[in-house]
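Write out this protein's structure.
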Amino acid sequence: MATARRDYYEVLGVSRGAGEREIKKAFRNLARELHPDVSDHPEAVVRFREAAEAYEVLSKSETRELYDRYGHEGLQTGGYVPTDFSSLSDLFSAFFGEDIFGRTAGARSSRGADLLAEVEIELVEAAQGTVLTIPFPAAVACSTCDGSGAAPGTALETCRQCGGAGRLQAVSSSVFGQFVRTQSCPTCAGRGRVTPTPCPKCDGDGRVNQERSIEVEIPAGIHDGQRIRLSGEGHAGGRGAHAGDLYVLVRIRPDERLVRDGNDVISSVSLTMSEAALGTTVTVPGLDGELEIEFEPGIQPGTVRVLKSRGMPVLQGYGRGDHRVLVNVAVPRHLSDEQRRLLQEFEQHTNEHTYKEDAGFFDKIRAAFR
């Protein structure tokens, strides 16, 4: 039987109204307390990763908003996947750019930086899914030196100052004991190796800037503001290190005909007074094209007609939302003398039965909105 997942706010020990700084501080404190290098708690690793997942969600406005509205299930259907870090040290340095004890992470782990690209699509494209080619500038491995940074025909050498460790340590003594201070090696910038003859194309960095493009599949049912993560498609890492990730931020243009409400869409239709009284058939715009709807005689303004399974697809799930059509009845503003006479004559022939409401009219409206 699956174990119920804990509330992210409870995991970090903060309130739902906590600000960004409070959430960050709570995670720092938990991380230092639960890190396996300093904690002998039997579930330290599990709790550490749980806290990291909670921080990853609550530190980003789009995932936090999705979680606040729909909880864990909303994150899952919204396409959120927790980052899979290769180590706990990588996890902490990815969030804060430092190790678990607050020291700045050395350049030895020169993973490429992440990139963010933004695309804008129509609501219909979000409903059907689409494939886009996205151009973006990125650092790529130098073709002349194959990313090594060394000129062709030469090789990298072990840094003499740090012996290839990439870090230097200094021990100092005081009345409180000995203290060890660690810093990145200034000679090799923490890489452990140096380039005697730098590559002339990349000047020894191993990377050059280049315009790239990539095809991105936008899944059907995606929401405005969600991001798609493409692992390893960001900036190239330094001298053979792993590349960063590319995050594609999806924006959906407002549609003049349809309004999205979760997985439902809402539109309106205006009937004339005579159409509403006599009944009519009209076409309304939908996600799959024009939809024909028949309205019975006596349709009332404010009535909501629900078209089942005509809304947005459920992202990474099954089924579709509904299409709700709100009925508006237009009252004539400008009448000719003949029209006014006919309406007055009509009014003289009405009685209490003419405008009698159907039983349960408002109950039907409430049920339609539910």
